[in-house]
Structure formats: structure tokens, C-alpha cells
Amino acid sequence: MVSTASKPVVKTTTEETLLSPRFYTTDFDAIAKMDISSQEAELKAAIAEMKADYNRNHFVRDEEFEQSWDSIDEKTRRAFIDFLERSCTSEFSGFILFKELSRKLKGRNPILAEVFHLMARDEARHAGFINKAMSDFNISLDLGYLTKNRTYTFFKPEWVIYAVYLSEKIGYWRYILMYRHLQKNPEYQFYPLFKKFENWCQDENRHGDIFKALLRSQPSMWKGWKAKLWAKFFLLSVFATHALTVRERADFYEAVGLDAEEYDREVIRKTNETSARAFPLTLNVEHPQFFPRLDRCSKRNEKMKEIAQSSKLKPVKFLQKLSLIAATSFDLLYLYCLKSVDAEALRVTVR
Ligand SMILES: [Fe+2]
Ligand SMILES: [Fe+2]
């Protein structure tokens, strides 16, 4: 729904699909009772770093933003707005979760309450900054409306920790790789937001390290077969979602001079490598079947979108989609069953 009464156009809803950023809620009591003693020093150090607030003056719209963006062609503009909308929703969903955690944990778990309060501050800055960028293109998200009306997915605390760890680290790699690429190829830097990504991604990296500390504070999350199955599940889910969404938005990556496929692979490789510091295992992304199967899933995803937009009868669409869903499920299951890399063994070797 778009309200057109005032400028800029305020969007009160965003598309919710399997691949769109989710809003999470969790068992706050269980998190309040979590024993974080083994990682307390790490968490206190993170609090001190966030209080130092190195990015205090970073999210400021300098004079580079004060210009007209009318010269950006329609195709690029549409792809960029879509990128901004997805990024803003994702940053904002982090804010909502962290804010709620800090509120519910206040007086019960002071260290975690403070950690989440400071992370919520960062995510509010990120979401607000992107939303202001959207207003340069005459559109903005009604974040208050989204808070009240978006569907919230319940995740157990362990799932939140696995999922948010990965989303922070993949966010870090997405921002830094795009920043480095645009530093080398400034002709594609069509809007100054990208220049902010270097310091910005340090916030995401720090958030990821905080979730690493939470994960390592819970031995059940990295010891034993159950932990391994969950870790593998979250790695594959996050990487598959990334592969599908990046290919869906190939126009945007083309506009900034990136090859969507190469960028996606690099982000996945780097995030997988980083995850070895927190997760009990990582995926064997160098297996000859890994990326080709993900590519096939992406192509089927595109095909499903075409079918959904076609004028065919609903039952026909359903049957056409069914075979594609079955094939994608088989590919994902195949990838899930591939032998993973034992990160705990690597940890022992490194020490
Ligand atoms: Fe963020
Ligand atoms: Fe973050």
C-alpha cells in the first residue's frame, strides 16, 4: 500500500516472501537466563568498544548528498530503490529484535541488555540512513507502520543466534566487497551511500563477533551432532537465500559494475570461511557440485516468478511450480548431505 497524499511517497508495506528479510521474535526469558560467563570478558570488551562509538559522526549526510539524482536512468533507479528497500527492512528488523531484547532483559541480564541496547542504536542509524537515501528517490518506508504490521517469525534463542550471527557476517562481507569494488571502479559509484560502507561494515562485523561470543558461550550450540546439523542447516539456508536474491536483483549489481554470480560466490566463500571461528563446521563450498546446484536453484526461482506473473490458471501454475520446487528441494538436500569441514578440528590445529 502506498499513500500518495504527501511527498515523498511513504510505503507502509513491503513485499513479504520466503526470501525477504524477516522480523523475529524469540523466548526472551530463556535468553535472560542464559549462562554467558565463559564469554563475559568478550562481551564487556564489545560494550566498551560500542560505547567508544567510533561511528558517531559517520552517518551524516554530507554535501555529496545535496544534489539531484534525476540523471540516474529508470532501470538503475528501480533496481537501486529495491536494493535500498530490502537493506532498510533488514537493518530495521535487526533494530526491532535488539531493542526488544534490551527492553526485556533490563534488570535481568545487565550485560546482554546493554549489548543489545548498543546494537539497536547502530541498526537504527543504519536503517534511518538508508531510509533518508530512499527519500532522495522520493520514497520512504513507514518504519512505525512496519513495526506494528509486519509478520513476526518465532525463532528459538539458538536459532536466533545462528541466524543473526550469519546475517551480520554476510552483511559485513556484502558491504566491504562492494565498497572495495567501487573504490577500484569509481565510475560505478552513482550515489554516495556506497562510500559509507567501509566504516558501516565495521558495526556489522562487531555485531557478528557479539553473536559469536553468545554462540560459544553455549556449548550445546557447537558440541555434538545436533549442533552440527543445525549449523549446517543455517549455513545452507543463508547461502541459498543469498544466491537466489542476488540473482533476482542482477540489474542492481550490473548497475554498480558487479557480476552478480561472482559477487554472490565471493560473499558466500568469505562468510563460510569466517563462520569457522564460531560454528562447529563450515560447508565445503569448493565441492564441484556446490555452486552449480545453487545456480540451478536460482534459475528455477526465476522461472517460478515468471510462472507466478503469467496469466495461466491457478491449478496450472501450481503444477508447473511443483516440479520446480521438488527439484530445488532435491538439490538443497543433496548440498546438505555433502561432507562438511570440521571447524573444531581446525581450531585445535591453529592453536
Ligand atoms: Fe546494520
Ligand atoms: Fe548489524
Automatic annotation (TrEMBL):
**Identification of the protein by name:** Magnesium-protoporphyrin IX monomethyl ester [oxidative] cyclase
Q: What does this protein do?
A: Catalyzes the formation of the isocyclic ring in chlorophyll biosynthesis. Mediates the cyclase reaction, which results in the formation of divinylprotochlorophyllide (Pchlide) characteristic of all chlorophylls from magnesium-protoporphyrin IX 13-monomethyl ester (MgPMME).
Q: Does the keyword Transmembrane apply?
A: no
Pathway entry = Porphyrin-containing compound metabolism; chlorophyll biosynthesis (light-independent)
- Kind of enzyme, top EC level? oxidoreductase
Q: What is its EC number?
A: 1.14.13.81
Quote the catalytic activity from the record. Mg-protoporphyrin IX 13-monomethyl ester + 3 NADPH + 3 O2 + 2 H(+) = 3,8-divinyl protochlorophyllide a + 3 NADP(+) + 5 H2O
- What processes does the entry annotate via GO biological process terms? light-independent chlorophyll biosynthetic process; photosynthesis
Per its UniProt record, the required cofactor names are: Fe cation
Protein keywords:
Chlorophyll biosynthesis, Iron, Metal-binding, NADP, Oxidoreductase, Photosynthesis
Start and end residues of each Rubrerythrin diiron-binding domain: 82-215
NCBIfam families in the cross-refs:
AcsF, PRK13654.1
What GO molecular function annotation could you give as one example from this UniProt entry? iron ion binding
The major lineage groups are:
Bacteria, Bacillati, Cyanobacteriota, Cyanophyceae, Spirulinales
SUPFAM superfamilies in UniProt: Ferritin-like (SSF47240)
- Tell me the PANTHER family matching this sequence: MAGNESIUM-PROTOPORPHYRIN IX MONOMETHYL ESTER [OXIDATIVE] CYCLASE, CHLOROPLASTIC
